[in-house]
Design brief:
0% strand; mainly alpha; 189 residues
């Protein structure tokens, strides 16, 4: 049994059935969650080291790295049966869609920093960090996620059931024990 099915079996039956119907979206969200962690760790790793004064640059680099991870996980897991394009064309469309996604992700932070002026010395360091997190890591990620899901389905992996899905694991069925004739059974007949 696949990991996704085992995990869904832990949930109430009605919830599990609903999520199975939306399996592709659930997998997309899981990949997105993992890439969110990658982006979060890289963003703050860069912000507190080499890009201390450039939060938009740190966020953009973190999103580019997370996008590369996202491509491989989405292609091989979330949208495994979708496709319909040559690999290089699909990859180009993926990175164009994600380029737009990076811009959409960074735009709220840019607006907060440079239009609203939510940065030092206008506000405290704590307020700036909170603002950067809300505008960059929550609002920006949410806007970009909705766009990416739509773009992957429409542009990048447009056709469903193009690549065969791996066969589901089904446990072997145990046959009922059939008595074998013995020497004494054949002499009684």
């Amino acid at each position: 049994m696949r990991l996704t099915d085992r995990t869904l079996n832990l949930l109430p039956r009605q919830v599990a059935e609903l999520l199975r119907k939306k399996r592709e979206t659930v997998k997309f969200i899981i990949v997105g969650g993992l890439c969110y962690v990658v982006s979060l760790v890289l963003n703050y790793g860069l912000r507190f080291t080499v890009f201390e004064e450039k939060p938009v640059t740190a966020l953009t680099i973190a999103n580019v790295v997370a996008t590369v991870v996202s491509y491989f996980l989405n292609r091989e897991w979330s949208f495994r049966t979708r496709g319909g394009r040559r690999r290089h064309h699909e990859m180009l469309l993926f990175f164009v869609a994600n380029g737009i996604g990076v811009i959409l992700n960074s735009a709220p932070l840019w607006v907060a920093q440079y239009v609203f002026g939510l940065h030092k010395p206008n506000i405290s360091s704590a307020a700036e960090e909170l603002s950067d997190f809300i505008f960059g890591m929550i609002i920006g990620v949410a806007v970009a996620m909705v766009f990416r899901l739509w773009a992957y389905r429409v542009w990048v992996f447009p056709h469903d059931d193009v690549r065969p899905a791996p066969k589901r694991y089904e446990p072997p069925v145990q046959a009922a024990a059939v008595p074998t004739p013995t020497a004494t059974d054949s002499s009684n007949a």
